[in-house]
Write a structure and sequence with these properties.
Largest sheet: 7 strands, parallel
Number of domains: 2
Helix content: 40-55%
CATH class of the largest domain: Alpha Beta
Pfam families: adh_short_C2
EC number: 1.1.99.21
Shape: globular
Strand content: 5-15%
GO molecular function: D-sorbitol dehydrogenase (acceptor) activity; oxidoreductase activity, acting on the CH-OH group of donors, NAD or NADP as acceptor
Number of strands: 7
Family: Belongs to the short-chain dehydrogenases/reductases (SDR) family.
Protein name: D-sorbitol dehydrogenase (Acceptor)
Radius of gyration: 18 Å
CATH superfamily of the largest domain: NAD(P)-binding Rossmann-like Domain
Length: 262
């Protein structure tokens, strides 16, 4: 029970990697706040978690728009009122975009940076302020991507946002460690979530491929021999949230089946 009596907030926590991390944290004794922009998805996630035997005393759902500072502040206040403070933040909310450089629109560019960078940073800031005021330190985990490690055709804006996440992770970590707040990141590779059906369709459009072919190929190209699954990320997220990582600062851990080495 490595997270016993700890309270965690997981943005984008209603699906995919976010939900898998919520499941792992609950199994380790944490209180879990599922923070997501989709109320229906929050209800479904909470029903799933209750169905796995977790009681409402451990669970809280919050509608959160990371692009809205008032929404972020209300989330922090609500969690403080319910659980007495936040010990762990997983900045997982993100959006994806794909188009050739010559077709990138200002709206697409602004949307991706608003959620993936600005929203992540100001959520981190609001939670870190509460952690500093509480005086008990904490753990902040930013979800980056292998796309932040290198440029990739068709996803120039997304790659740039995730590179910014890695950079912000380093800078925020160096600033906040004096308060006992460890900031680190996780860089997933290709992960088999429902979103990949949309990604595959976009590759089919831009690379003139049959539906399903790109997903199959990227899975085969991973050295581990398959795409990642959401539950592949629970262990890394648990490590970075627990006391085991107290001396880990400003790192972004690659969890990608061997796709990227750094």
């Amino acid at each position: 029970m490595k997270l016993d009596n700890k309270t965690s907030v997981i943005t984008g926590g209603a699906r995919g990697i976010g939900l898998a991390i919520a499941q792992r944290y609950l199994a380790e004794g944490a209180n879990v706040v599922v923070a997501d922009i989709d109320p229906g998805a929050i209800d479904e996630a909470l029903a799933t978690l209750r169905g796995e035997g977790h009681g409402d005393e451990q669970l809280m759902g919050v509608r959160l728009d990371v692009c809205d500072r008032a929404s972020v502040d209300a989330m922090v206040e609500g969690v403080n009122a319910r659980f007495g403070g936040i010990d762990i933040l997983v900045n997982n909310a993100a959006v994806f975009g794909m188009e050739p450089v010559l077709e990138v629109t200002e709206a697409s560019y602004d949307r991706q940076f608003a959620v993936n960078v600005k929203g992540l940073f100001f959520t981190l800031q609001a939670v870190a302020r509460a952690m500093v005021a509480r005086g008990r330190g904490g753990k902040i985990i930013n979800m980056a991507s292998q796309a932040g490690r290198r440029g990739e055709a068709l996803v120039s804006t997304y790659c740039a946002t995730k590179a910014a996440v890695i950079s912000l992770t380093q800078s925020c970590a160096l600033d906040l460690i004096e308060h006992g707040i460890n900031v680190n990141g996780i860089a997933p590779g290709v992960v088999d979530t429902p979103m990949w059906e949309e990604v595959d369709a976009l590759f089919a459009r831009y690379e003139k491929r049959p539906l399903g072919e790109k997903k199959r190929l990227v899975g085969e190209e991973v050295p581990a021999g398959r795409m990642g699954r959401p539950d592949d990320y629970g262990g890394a997220a648990l490590f970075l949230a627990s006391d085991d990582s107290d001396y880990v600062v400003a790192q972004t851990l690659n969890v990608d089946g061997g796709n990227w080495m750094s």
